[in-house]
Request: fold
Amino acid sequence: MKKTRQTIETQKTLRAQIVDSLKEAIATGQLKPGEKISETRLSEDLGISRTPLREAIQTLEADGFLKVIPRKGAVVSDFSRKDIEDIYDIKAALEGLAARLATENLTVSNIQKMENINGQLRALTLKGESSAGRFFKLHNEFHDIFLQAGNNDRLYQLNCHLMDPFKRFRLSSLAIPGRFEESVRAHDEIIEAFKVKDANEAEELVIENVLEGKRALINKVESK
Reply:
């Protein structure tokens, strides 16, 4: 029985690792929309059986990262204007509320950390698209400070749940010229609102920051 349990746990771990690896490859554009996922090649490359791989593909299909086409197999899903609108609109509502709740809770130390992170983001604007992954990571750290300061665990968890699909959209939007600079400027304004404890202004600025990203990405997708 113990051996069976260990086998199941190992299989679950393998599946999770495959899911995370493929999500990262899709989010960063290493795997392009429409690209076929070869079970045979992945199985050989990773040195694993097809069972956890097929389970991972089912998970990724359910999460919207892959689409399984009869007689063709799994391919990377494209995203539509509605996909972008759905995710960004929810993200804007969640982060806006978090900013409002956080305004009274943010400490001087919190704000200093946000200023430091935004300084690092400003430095990355000189490097351009090649540093999009690093920019995305720091951008999340900036937002995570006020998301946690909102002191609402359910709100925080809901936002975390959006991160996988949002990462794919966000990295795509960061390839748009000027997006690095616009994000840094928006962060400067958000920090100032937090400093003077203006909850209304902080909420509005955070919402507008998210929605500006949505508009930029929609324009990029529809101009193809």
Remarks:
- The chain has two domains: 2-76, 81-222.
- DSSP finds ten helices and two strands in the chain.
- The chain has a mean pLDDT of 87.
- Residues 124 and 134 are 8 Å apart (CA to CA).
